[in-house]
Specification:
The protein has 3 helices and 13 strands, in the order αβββββββββαββββα. The chain is mainly beta. It folds into 2 domains: 37-127 and 237-247, Beta Barrel (Thrombin, subunit H), CATH 2.40.10.10; 128-235, Trypsin-like serine proteases (Thrombin, subunit H), CATH 2.40.10.10. This is MGC85264 protein. Belongs to the peptidase S1 family. Snake venom subfamily.
């Protein structure tokens, strides 16, 4: 489900709509191979993705913000249609959007979600290390989520989906989205189209070399030629992440 303000924005900007990001052209992940993956619901409804980084802390996208009392974090999931006995469902206590987030440009599209109680680590629930370096072009990465499977139409995934994809050069990214890419964003995917993250995967992880490098953020349409997915650049927020998690 897409936040209401995003739907309003899309209606106004129909000529070139921003679309918060889904997995298209990927494959079903090996069950529980992404134990940091978080599935966030709002009032019981499908909402966004996230990444567990500490027992009580999740990184997601700022445009996924809703009142914390309405949000629950689901960890240890794979098939949303099955009770797998591996799940942990934990109420959200508070949410910290980045102070520089701009809902019009998606700049600083990152937030930290604090849980009411700590997640219990086991083989199904594990944190992902936050990358200390910034992404480099041509690095092979993996994005995962429960978002829409279709470039045209709607069919949400019930099993966690994965997609292997490369980080694109800054020049290619800016050529795809002229004057839209800030220093806090990067692109990953395929300029030929056909494979992408998109609606429903927002806030989820882009993992490279076993570390969290990106947060699924935005794009124009999904899986279209010359319009790759855009991700929040986690390396730019290391001090902010440390400050929030240490002092709250």
């Amino acid at each position: 489900m897409m936040p209401i303000w995003v739907l309003m924005f899309l209606a106004v900007a129909a000529a070139a709509p921003l679309d918060d990001d889904k997995i298209i052209g990927g494959y079903e992940c090996t069950p529980h191979s992404q134990p940091w993956q978080v599935y966030l619901t709002q009032n019981g409804d499908r909402w966004c993705g996230g990444s567990l980084i500490l027992p009580r802390w999740i990184i997601s996208a700022a445009h996924c913000y809703v009142p914390p009392e309405t949000m629950v974090a689901h960890l240890g999931e794979h098939d949303l249609n099955k009770k797998e006995t591996t799940e942990q469902h934990i109420q959200v206590e508070s949410i910290y959007m980045h102070h520089g987030y701009n809902e019009d440009t998606y700049d600083n599209d990152i937030m930290l979600v604090k849980l009411v109680e700590p997640a219990q680590y086991n083989q199904y629930v594990q944190p992902i290390p936050v990358a200390r370096s910034c992404p480099k072009a041509a690095t092979e990465c993996l994005v995962s989520g429960y978002g829409n499977l279709l470039a045209y139409g709607v069919k949400y995934a019930d099993q966690l989906q994965c997609l292997d994809l490369p980080i694109l050069s800054e020049s290619s990214c800016k050529a795809s989205y002229p004057k839209k890419i800030s220093e806090n964003m990067f692109c990953a995917g395929f300029l030929e189209g056909g494979k992408d993250s998109c609606q429903g995967d927002s806030g989820g992880p882009l993992i490279c070399n076993g570390e969290l490098y990106g947060v699924v953020s935005w794009g124009w349409y999904c899986a279209r030629k010359d319009l790759p997915g855009v991700y929040a650049k986690v390396c730019n927020y290391l001090d902010w992440i440390q400050d929030i998690t240490n002092n709250n």
